[in-house]
Amino acid sequence: MIVVLFVALIATVAGDSPTPQTSFQMEDPYSCSCVQYDIFCDDVAEEPYYEKAAALCAARGGSLAILRTEESDTAVLNAINGMNDATCITEYGYFIGLSDADSEGTFQWFDGTFSCPVSYNRWNAGEPNNNDKKATEGQDCAQMWFRRGTGNWDDEYCNLRKKGVICQTFNVECDAALLK
């Protein structure tokens, strides 16, 4: 039953084929390959928001973005800042592939690796804080947060508000025209 629902969810997302607001490729020093980032406005979001965001990325052959290096995080941040579209997101953020839903306080990337205190991160001051004022389960899903214009990371409620989506797809070769 769960598999059927997941397949239906992916088929629904894949059938809609939303167009990213912006896309770019870069060489990823962590994986020694090329990665393409697709950034979507929050109009692609439907409840449950985080699961649908992940399904959108999976339907495109990728995952929510794994920003484990300063280079990749800064490139995505610059791409978002370069969009100059204030109407793209209404709830101030873009989901990324980092969550502590499995174990509170232990953030894990979508590929199974952990965001340890010694690895790269860009948490906003006072974050992550697992705020539970609006949902008893607290905040388990990470976002690049633009409410105060920083793009720093924030732990957010997974299904309370729609967000923009940042997907990544690994490619064998980089398209020189798209490299940043």
Summarize the structure.
Helix content is 22%, strand content 24%. The chain contains 3 helices and 8 strands; from the N terminus they run H-E-E-H-E-H-E-E-E-E-E.
Pattern of helices and strands = HEEHEHEEEEE
Structural class: alpha+beta
Shape: globular
Low-confidence stretches: 1-14
C-alpha Rg (nearest Å): 15 Å
The rounded distance between the terminal residues' Cα atoms is: 43 Å
Strands, count: 8
Question: How confident is the prediction overall: mean pLDDT?
Answer: 82
Hey, roughly how much beta strand do the residues contain? Answer: 15-25%
Q: Number of helical runs?
A: 3
**Helix share bin:** 10-25%
The major sheet is characterized as:
8 strands, mixed
Describe the structure.
Mean pLDDT is 82; it is low at 1-14. With 180 residues, the protein is α+β, with helices and mostly antiparallel strands. The protein contains 3 helices and 8 strands. A hairpin with a 7-residue loop joins β6 and β7. The termini are far apart. α1 crosses α2. Strands 1, 2, 3, 4, 5, 6, 7 and 8 form an 8-stranded mixed beta sheet that branches.
For this entry, give a set of tags.
180 residues, alpha+beta, disordered N terminus
Task: Give the SSE layout.
Elements: H1 2-16, E1 22-28, E2 33-40, H2 49-59, E3 63-64, H3 70-83, E4 93-99, E5 108-109, E6 141-145, E7 153-156, E8 164-171
Parallel strand pairs: 4-8
Antiparallel strand pairs: 1-2, 2-8, 3-8, 4-5, 4-6, 6-7
Helix pairs in contact: 1-2
